[in-house]
Amino acid sequence: MHDQPAYRPLRRSDFFADGRSGRPLVPGTVARGQLREDAYYYSGMVSKTQPGNTIPFPVTAEVLRRGQERFDIYCSPCHSRVGDGNGMIVQRGYRHPPTFHSDTLRSMPVGHFFDVMTNGFGAMPDYAQQVAPADRWAIAAYIRVLQFSQHATIADVPDSARPLLTEGPVGMPAAPAATTAGETPAAIQGGSQPQAQPAPQPKKGGAQ
User: Fold this and answer.
1) pTM of structure
2) Could you tell me which of 50, 148, 169, 184 has the fewest CB atoms within 10 Å of its CB?
3) Which of 39, 60, 58, 30 has the alpha carbon at shortest distance from 114?
4) SS3 of 55, please?
5) Which helix (H) or strand (E) holds 136?
6) How many CA atoms lie less than 13 Å away from 132 in the CB half-sphere?
7) Domain 66-151 part of CATH 1.10.3720.10
8) What is the pLDDT of residue 60?
9) Residue 188: phi, psi to the nearest 5?
10) Which residue, among 41, 27, 53, 10, has the nearest Cα to 133 in the 3D structure?
11) In this structure, are residues 79 and 97 in contact, taking their beta carbons and an 8 Å threshold?
């Protein structure tokens, strides 16, 4: 067997016409798994300055659970779990980020959050190495749901789910109806209300 000659890095070679031993990649070569034909999926931007406002895959309950998990790990230390910007690191002196529930961020396209996670913004570093693109989108979707949860009204709840707001969990009694001053809630009427006991009478001839 013949041992093929080897070259040290940056060592000159007389074999190639350009004199370099290290050969450049073939034009158009893409590493396995790095083709990235879908520019929006990897950037969140529909143009250089305009973020998109769609999630590039169906948002399911599983996606939101994944987004919540990744949010709690990577985002909540600064943004807190409710997204108000008062996380534990902030409470110990780190720069206070804006709340997700401001009118400005509630109206921001969802691609903006993906772009910030990818490239950083202000005091926030990028998380492109720590969080995969699919997880960044899952976090962005969860942020949007988190924003909605803080501003939803009863009209936003489906008719089929509205009774749960008053009936409580399965096996639990319904919450007492709102009352005015002096009224007894219906839930504690009919014998369940404790009866008032008469005040004890002082004993005759004894210490008062």
Assistant:
1) 0.68
2) 169
3) 39
4) coil
5) helix 133-149
6) 6
7) no
8) 97
9) -115, 15
10) 41
11) yes
